[in-house]
Amino acid sequence: MQEKLEIRINDVVEVEIVDINHRGQGVARIDGYVVFVDDLIMGDEAKIRIIEKKKKYGVGKLVELLKKSEYRTEPECKYFWECGGCQIMHMDYKKQLEYKKSRVESEIRKAIGVNDIKINDTLGMENPFRYRNKGAFPVARDKGDIAIGAYKMGTHDIVDLDKCLIQHDAADRIVNAFRNLMDLLSLEPYDERTHKGLIKHLMIRSNKKNEIMLIIVTSKNKLPNKSEIIGKLLEEVPEIKSIVLNVNERQPNVILGNKNKVIYGKPVLKDWIYDLEFSISPHSFFQVNPFQTDVLYSKALEYAELDENKVVYDIYCGIGTISLAAAKKSKHVYGIEIVKAAIDDAKKNAVENKIDNVDFYCGKAEDVFPKLHNQGIDADIVIVDPPRKGCEKSVIETIIKMKPEKVVYVSCNPATLARDLKFLGDGGYEIVEIQPVDMFPHGTHVECVVKLVRKIKG
Fold first, then answer.
1. Dihedral sign, CA of 259, 169, 321, 105?
2. CA of 92: how far to CAs of 80, 89, 325, in Å?
3. Inter-residue contact 447 to 132 (CB < 8 Å)
4. Per the residue annotation, which of 86, 317, 391, 412 is the catalytic one?
5. What is the pLDDT of residues 404-423, one digit of tens each?
6. In terms of Cα–Cα distance, which of 370, 371, 324 is closest to 351?
7. Distances in Å between the alpha carbon of 120 and those of 73, 97, 260, 290?
8. Element (H, E) at 136
9. Number of C-alpha atoms within 13 angstroms, CB side, residue 274?
10. Which residues, in sequence order, are CB contacts of 310 under 8 Å at separation 6+?
11. Does the active-site annotation cover 412?
12. Confidence class of residue 101 from pLDDT cuts 50, 70 and 90?
């Protein structure tokens, strides 16, 4: 019987990468022991050095690429190997879509233990670049120079960018113009260690008309040389329709503070999904890939099979995007969201779109949803679109008690999706099909829409 290889720190070993994990790291197995390695994808063969060893897994560092995978491609972005914004741009895009489907399959199989659930191929993009309508760019000093860009993977060190291929191209011009203005006007970036300095982040939002909202995040309620900054930015980027000063005096790792002051243009940016118009404020949650949002929401509405007699719950409704689209096809919609600013936006959006068969409630879904059910407000269809942690247990329990005929689950995390589908299955719901959608090309995240129907006993 062959002895297992004893793995030690600093050992250099040859491995074949058999998969990639949820962080985009290559997965190797050495006599059954799992090792994760940055910069490698399935099919690569390489020499790696073991740099970390734990009981259940190790971490390796690439020493030499011995054989390239057939799926490996040259990243189009020159910053890819430094920047943490994308994780798998070195993988052929078709293979990215296959990988995302396999992640969903793996999590579902692990949680539910069956292989016959219908999981469709991932719906991807024809052109998987320049798709984001929102970007947040940290600002700092790097070796004495102003750096504006993205964090290196797993650090708060900044990669200074002059171009980002997944952002709107106006973001490139804004970042470069603002960097020059900071040098010219001696505007000091905020230092996370000393808590000194002024400029923390730039957040850039765009809409389908290519109009831009720029949010300048500062540590204090001031912006010196404001008129000069506005004039120069408008000269360089005429698409800018709004500039907002956001004040974040807090030190924790949160980008936006609570204070917004419009210093140019209007306080909101208008955007559209289907024929619905939405007002986007600096804090609004709005899907960041407008091209795929239409795909995602169309599939959710298709699965819901709405008609004028149906009552709908939209739980974790945000600014009411799905709620309002559903309201146009159903009898009544109840939306629930914890963020007050989002609910305020949702109510305004309902008024602006002349939709009156929808009610929005602000509060924790796990509190509001059971309370409304106990008051006798039930629905035929429940749509949930929770954050990455998935649905709270009381939300799932209330769905099971309410017994809607269908549940449509929109998920951004296959692991918590699989957990919640198991609970719903145990509570009497059957998965009809799962549709992965690629909202984040070149990243590891995958969204899914799931159609579930209640089993009728007897």
1. negative
2. 14, 7, 35
3. no
4. 412
5. 999 999 999 999 999 999 99
6. 324
7. 25, 11, 43, 21
8. strand 134-142
9. 14
10. 304, 330, 331, 379, 380, 381
11. yes
12. very high
- Distances from the Cα of 406 to the Cαs of 212, 217, 339, 375, 383, in angstroms? 39, 43, 26, 21, 9
The amino acid present at 411, given as its one-letter code, is S
In DSSP notation, 189-220 reads: BP-TTT---SEEEEEEEE-TT--EEEEEEESS
In sequence order, the β-bridge partners of residue 91 are 72
Q: What are phi and psi of 279, to 5 degrees?
A: -95, 120
pLDDT digits (tens, 9 = 90+) for 142-154: 888 999 999 887 7
Q: Is the dihedral of CA 8, 83, 21, 66 positive or negative?
A: negative
Place of tokens 């920047």: 83
Crossing angle for the helix pair 393-402 and 414-426, to the nearest 10 degrees: 40
Q: Is 242 exposed, middle or buried (0-12, 13-18, 19+ CB in 10 A)?
A: buried
Q: Which amino acid is at 280?
A: I
Structure token pair of residue 256:
């936006």
Position 7: which residue type? I
Q: Which strand (E) or helix (H) includes residue 422? A: helix 414-426
* Residue located via tokens 């059957």: 430
Largest Cα separation within the chain, whole Å, is 78
Q: What pTM value is reported for the model? A: 0.92
- Which residues lie across from 269 on neighbouring strands? 280
List the beta bridge partners of residue 447.
437
**Would you tell me how many other CB atoms lie within 10 Å of the CB of residue 178?**
25
**The tokens of 253 are what?**
């790792």
- 278: pLDDT strictly greater than 70: yes
Domains of the chain (ranges; CATH) run 12-67 (2.40.50.140), 110-124+286-454 (3.40.50.150), 135-273 (2.40.50.1070)
